[in-house]
TrEMBL record:
SUPFAM superfamilies xref list: Cytochrome P450 (SSF48264)
Listed name of the protein: Uncharacterized protein
Entry-linked Gene3D superfamilies: Cytochrome P450
Top-rank taxon: Eukaryota
Names of required cofactors: heme
GO BP terms: organic acid metabolic process; xenobiotic metabolic process
Lineage: Eukaryota, Metazoa, Chordata, Craniata, Vertebrata
Keyword field: Iron, Metal-binding, Signal
Signal peptide per UniProt: 1-23
Family according to the record: Belongs to the cytochrome P450 family.
GO terms for MF: heme binding; iron ion binding; oxidoreductase activity, acting on paired donors, with incorporation or reduction of molecular oxygen, reduced flavin or flavoprotein as one donor, and incorporation of one atom of oxygen
One Pfam family matching this protein: p450
GO cellular component: cytoplasm
């Protein structure tokens, strides 16, 4: 009995938190518990949602809200008028732990990784004439190998 009460209270708190978050976001289709709108993602439903809610609406991927912007003007208004809200990418455990790297990072981590990457690439010769000569030499060797394999040399 106690487990059922605990589960009911836990699910109710999750539901209330989602409802509180939904009030601050643009309108969108009602999400299902735990999976959000993941079960309803296809082109036809996306088109119907666009017609019903307009160019800006919210979808839920699990418990993560995703603001959908359709059209040039909506994207321009959001990125120029609300740049702070759109400045960072959401950090999920999968992206942070499994993928990581400069592509999925942002903020201070992104700046550090970018600085390190550029410094390393410059140390390896990126942007220098010597790199171009080295690439040309390697390309010529590769062409000779291909020609030998085809019996042209």
């Amino acid at each position: 009995m106690g487990i059922f009460v605990f589960l009911f209270v836990w699910i109710s708190l999750i539901f209330l938190n989602i409802q509180r978050a939904r009030r601050k976001l643009p309108p969108g289709p009602t999400p299902l518990p735990f999976i959000g709108n993941l079960g309803t993602l296809d082109f036809q439903i996306h088109h119907e949602t666009l017609l019903k809610y307009g160019n800006i609406y919210t979808l839920w991927l699990g418990r993560t809200p995703v603001i959908v912007l359709n059209g040039f003007q909506a994207v321009k208004d959001a990125l120029i008028g609300h740049a702070e809200e759109f400045a960072e990418r959401p950090i999920t455990p999968f992206l942070r732990d499994i993928v990581g790297g400069i592509i999925f990072s942002n903020g201070h981590t992104w700046k550090q990784q970018r600085r390190f990457s550029l410094m390393t690439l410059r140390n390896l010769g990126l942007g220098k004439k010597s790199l171009e000569a080295w690439i040309q030499e390697e390309a010529n060797c590769l062409i000779k190998i291909f020609a030998r394999q085809r019996g042209e040399i």
